[in-house]
Amino acid sequence: MVKRNKVTIIGAGNVGSTTAQRLAEKEIGDVVLLDIVPDLPQGKALDILESSPIYRFNAKVSGTNNYADTANSEIVIITSGIPRKPGMSRDDLLKTNANIVSQVTRQVVRYSPDAILIVVSNPLDAMTYVASKVSGFPKNRVIGMAGVLDTSRFRTFIAMELGVSVENVNAFVLGGHGDTMVPAIRYTTVVGIPVAELIPKDRLDLIIKRTKEGGAEIVSLLKTGSAYYAPSAAIVEMVEAILKNKNKILPCAAYCHGEYGIKDLFVGVPVKLGVNGVEKIIEISLTPEEKAGILKSAEAVSELCQSVDRLGL
Ligand code: APR
User: Fold this and answer.
1) pTM exceeds 0.85
2) How far is CA 147 from the centre of its chain?
3) Is 270 found in the same domain as 155?
4) Residue 177 catalytic?
5) pLDDT for 91
6) How far apart are CA 283 and CA 28, in angstroms?
């Protein structure tokens, strides 16, 4: 029998359950949803499974509160944590989510020692550091999801501005997930045309600002939680790149060994994603301004990681 891929999602909340649905509908693998709340992941998984005859997908979707059921997953996606409330910054979440991510990672690693971890909990760059530190996994097997989401938001706004298909827009966003993200304008194109030739600077600046505040915009509209449709789509793109060994270049939070002048930190950079997780960090040439932006971003991440270290997890 050909073995199907197994993907575990920790946290059966909005991001986790929407990711489970998308993965199952695309038949990317069997999905295990785990949550600390009794019955919640079982209920969500069963509900997704009951849509399979209509949507015609063949995937096992199960829910559990027991880590033994996650054993030997190829990929584990960590979404557990509390989401941002209106007016709360990602960094306010640091302490609570660092404790949750650290507990969860310990359990995950016990049952899936060869998995690739995709971290989604916020503050993203710091939580990726927590998962890396606690797991002790090789750095290529711990990746944070942020850049694909930020880029997707940026592409959406550019397409809206120009009235063209989102499929025509390619964009690159580097740096941390938050106010310090760095949209790389020269690599942002519409059917190959640099975006700066199509959108006047003042309009583009507004689009960049909206992208940076993209998460907060959704939080203030939803009032009771944070974004999950676009985040789950971004996770699925990463999972597909890995499990199908696509070697797809996507912006992700990856461990830098000196690339872009950043050492020993997880920061958003372009990476080639394949079956080993981060196959390679791609170094693109940056303007002095972009370079300063990414270093500033790295500094902010470094401060958060120092706060994590002080928690003594
Ligand atoms: N173990 C397992 N699950 C946990 C734990 C834990 N220790 N602690 C919390 N959870 C679960 C919650 O019970 C909840 O079901 O994590 C889930 C989080 O779901 P939501 O509150 O709906 O949050 P969501 O919108 O999915 O966001 C998850 O992703 O984008 C980030 O900032 C966001 O950190 C947040 C994460």
Assistant:
1) yes
2) 7
3) yes
4) yes
5) 65
6) 30
